[in-house]
User: Which sequence fits this backbone?
């Protein structure tokens, strides 16, 4: 069970609403595009929040602060997955990337779109907003978890991040600043605080884009590797699909729900599911190789083509199962697996509805 701790104080929420109001009035999405990234280093923890705004089409007005290397890598994966493959984005890859994100965010909504708790909070703070998409709604996202309200640190850092983004925005409007493209140059403009006698002074720094610290899968034993090596190689296209299903699992109504992480072995020609495993909390990626090996042994052969949709899974298998290197490839778009995952998600969702 994941319960929220350290609810923001009255003063912290007032500061956050003030900053959000200034952000909405400044309309940064008219100048800063969704692919632009501005970093802000948190004065309390040193964590870098990678700030992105969306709203160019005037439909979804928001600012996201992706936390650390894992947050920004998941965002980049989501952007890549959302790009069309063969005419359509990949729902399987989009869900995996989207539910792997760690961020804090503010979205601007119409009054009728607000959750009851957001409207009640604004009322308790004496806040009211007039106009289209004028009401701020705040949220925290974590991998495989139901979104939740902000805690105290979230609220403080989001306030700081908004203020620093607005500072950069003013300089952009005055043509006083330029910043690197984070995803092509792998560098980012970061606003860095310095404590000078109890006063924070902010300055610019160009820093490398952080990389996610990846947990590793446990290696297979010598006996497990030997049993795989004895399997015959067969001319076969096997798709290994890793994704997160939309089904939300909650033990009680007060729990923070979890989304189901799954890996499926799918016949690339017929679409038949040959094996699958749903990961319990904390089990991924620790037991990934164990589950991949189990699915291969259940088929009784090593496929001549083993296709995966996730670059991290590709690396884990390449490092941990070298006998598969010659058949292993990471691809964008696995039609047989897309259909299998869609059917599987419907069954699971029905079971949890």
Assistant:
């Amino acid at each position: 069970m994941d319960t929220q701790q350290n609810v923001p104080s009255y003063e912290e929420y007032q500061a956050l609403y003030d900053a959000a109001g200034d952000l909405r009035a400044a309309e940064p999405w008219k100048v800063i595009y969704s692919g632009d990234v501005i970093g802000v280093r948190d004065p309390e923890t040193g964590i870098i929040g990678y700030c992105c705004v969306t709203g160019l089409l005037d439909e979804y007005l928001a600012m996201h602060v992706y936390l650390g290397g894992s947050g920004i890598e998941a965002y980049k994966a989501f952007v890549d997955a959302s790009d069309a493959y063969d005419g359509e984005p990949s729902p399987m890859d989009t869900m995996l990337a989207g539910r792997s994100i760690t961020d804090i965010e503010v979205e601007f909504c119409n009054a009728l779109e607000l959750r009851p708790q957001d409207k009640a909070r604004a009322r308790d703070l004496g806040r009211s907003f007039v106009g289209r998409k004028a009401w701020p709604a705040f949220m925290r996202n974590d991998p495989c978890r139901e979104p939740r309200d902000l805690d105290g640190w979230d609220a403080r850092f989001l306030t700081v991040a908004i203020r620093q983004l607005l500072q950069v925005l003013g300089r952009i409007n005055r043509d006083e600043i330029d910043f690197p493209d984070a995803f092509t140059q792998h560098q980012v403009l970061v606003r860095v605080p310095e404590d000078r006698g109890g006063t924070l002074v902010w300055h610019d720094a160009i820093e490398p884009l952080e990389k996610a610290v990846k947990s590793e899968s446990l290696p297979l034993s010598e006996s497990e590797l030997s049993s795989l090596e004895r399997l015959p190689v067969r001319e076969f296209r096997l798709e290994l699909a890793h994704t997160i299903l939309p089904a939300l699992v909650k033990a009680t109504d007060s729990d923070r729900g979890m989304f189901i992480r799954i890996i499926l072995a799918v016949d690339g020609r017929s679409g038949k599911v040959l094996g699958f495993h749903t990961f319990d909390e904390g089990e991924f990626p620790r037991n990934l190789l164990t589950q991949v090996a189990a699915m291969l042994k259940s088929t009784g052969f090593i496929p001549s083509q083993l296709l995966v949709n996730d670059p991290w899974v590709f690396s884990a298998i390449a490092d941990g199962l070298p006998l598969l290197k010659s058949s292993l490839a990471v691809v964008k778009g696995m039609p047989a697996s897309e259909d299998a995952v869609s059917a599987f998600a419907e069954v699971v969702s029905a079971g949890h509805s």
